[in-house]
Amino acid sequence: MSNKRKPKFGQNFLVDDNARHAIVDALGDISNRTVLEIGPGHGAITSLLAPRAQRLIALELDHSLAAELTFKFRDQPNVTIVQGDVLETDLAALIPEGTTADVIGNLPYYITSDILLQLFAAGRAGLLNRAVLMMQREVADRLSASPGVKEYGLLAATTQVNAEVDNLFTLPPSAFNPPPDVFSTVLRLHFAPRFEELQVDPAGFDSFLKQIFAQKRKTLHNNLRAASYDPETLAAAWPAEIPPQARAESLALEPLAALYRALAQHPR
Ligand code: SAM
Fold this sequence. Notes:
Layout: E1 13-14, H1 17-25, E2 34-38, H2 46-49, E3 55-60, H3 63-72, E4 79-83, H4 91-94, E5 101-106, H5 112-124, E6 128-136, H6 137-143, H7 154-162, E7 163-171, E8 176-177, E9 184-191, H8 195-198, H9 202-212, H10 220-226, H11 231-237, H12 253-264
Parallel strand pairs: 2-3, 2-5, 3-4, 5-6
Antiparallel strand pairs: 1-8, 6-9, 7-9
S-adenosylmethionine binds next to strand 1 and strand 3.
């Protein structure tokens, strides 16, 4: 067993005992739940989840850590350690058919956005209920930001069309060994995709969000011009509720969806 940190895997292990309890408590009652843990490391969270969860599946990229945990939990039949890359893993295959899972993880920060997109896709497929995730504070602030504040942008809009977000608590670098260079925040997501309610198709609305948040300095109108919408189409489709000079960063999902729907009815 090696305790040597492998920086390329984003390995900062949680050593604050109150924090690891608070993270697991944030998932609520898991006695009849399947829980997926991303990046269990040495098992700081895993060892609290194992006696509480009906079924725990922990996905660890590092071979030596996965082997260490497989040995540690060998007598706990409700715990499965899977060695592999979460981003290469088909989450659907891990979740018993007809059920949903909860996700927990002190994430490897270098792939936070990719993991989030993977979880949103699984949430849309009806596979997930909630997630408690630790990430870099600045990223957490961007996920949970409201329109009009400087952190609001593509990440907030993409997150909030897929899930309700609670920003729970922040930990200093000293909660980890080795300490990272940044503060860390724990968020809870409740997967509740809003595409149907907003009357938008998920893939089309995803692409639209990327277009309208492409350049922060540009107005919504100019970002759409850059995405090759012509001025006549924009004039014909523009909803009265959106000021002509508005930036996407100032608008909630409802007016953005209204614009998307209106543009979908006007051939480009
Ligand atoms: N959960 C542990 C804790 O709180 O002490 C470790 C957290 S550490 C920030 C992130 C963990 O994710 C490491 O154990 C790392 O090896 C693992 N990891 C990194 N990339 C991964 C990937 N692509 N798939 C699965 N696990 C990964």
